[in-house]
Amino acid sequence: MTALARGLEVLACFRHGEITLSNQELAQRCKLPKSTVSRLTMTLTKLGYLIHVQESGRYRLGTACLALGSALLNKLDVRKIARPMMQELAEFSGASVSLGVRDKLSMIYVENCRSSAALTLTLDVGSRMPLASSAMGRAWLAAVPQEQRLEAMEQIHGLDDLAWPHVKTGIDKALEDYRTLGVTCSFGDWNKEVNGVARAFDPGNGLPVMAVNVGGPSYNLSPKFLLDEVRPRLLQVVRAIEEALPV
After folding, report:
1. Ranges for the HTH iclR-type domain (predicted)?
2. Rounded to whole angstroms, how far apart are CA atoms 195 and 16?
3. Per-residue pLDDT tens over the stretch 166-189
């Protein structure tokens, strides 16, 4: 692994909601020697990708990371096209409507719209959803070519051999739902108090497969409401996004 790849692995260790990490925590997550991580954090700090918090000796992401992320998001025209339609769907459903792309074994939000009339999830741009158990992740698995799906499933299997049979059952059910309903579902699978449905699409122009999900607290979004009322509108929104994208 090159120094660049290792440096990127260090930056990827920071999860949504985490402010600081120590060299020891970074070393554990990267599975690298602490001495190697110390050299990497020193270099990343000099370049502005990390900030060294003197009082605690820990590290937080620097402004150079923000510049990189902003540059990427600003170039994603699909966000601008999708947002008005996503917001309308959020208001109808009383839920959160998000657009995401795959990053390793997660889906990461690149756009998020919330209903102004109801309590919704507090997730936002940059939040991550598990590939195997979230509606969005399952939609991605259902939409990509079989070779890509099997590769991802093999990686998911490697995370927990004992849990794999249960996880695979959920994925298989999602693939069948996608064929018959046009969406994937996660009714308490990712979080027992959260329900959601999702649909994926290929934006073209070299961009990866993306997915739109509608989700929220289970007491506010029943499976019946999501399937009977939200699902048809979600399918319409995704079709409209596809038609509006430049060829």
Report:
1. 1-63
2. 20
3. 999 999 999 999 999 999 999 999
Instruction: Give the burial class of 33: count Cβ atoms within 10 A of its Cβ; 0-12 exposed, 13-18 middle, 19 or more buried.
Output: exposed
CA of 67: how far to CAs of 48, 49, 53, 113, 208, in Å? 10, 10, 20, 22, 21
Nearest to 60 by CA among 85, 41, 37, 78: 41
Question: CA 81, CA 43: separation in Å to the nearest integer?
Answer: 38
Domain ranges of the chain: 3-67, 76-244
C-beta separation of 217 from 121 below 8 A: yes
| Token output for 30 | 């990267």
Q: Is 45 exposed, middle or buried (0-12, 13-18, 19+ CB in 10 A)?
A: middle
Domain 3-67, CATH: 1.10.10.10
Beta-carbon contacts of residue 223 (< 8 Å; ≥ 6 apart): 185, 187, 195
Give yes or no for a contact between 212 and 98, defined as CB atoms under 8 angstroms apart: yes
Class of domain 76-244: alpha beta
Tokens of 204: 């073209």
75-118 pLDDT, tens digit per residue, is 557 888 899 999 999 999 999 999 999 988 989 888 999 887 65
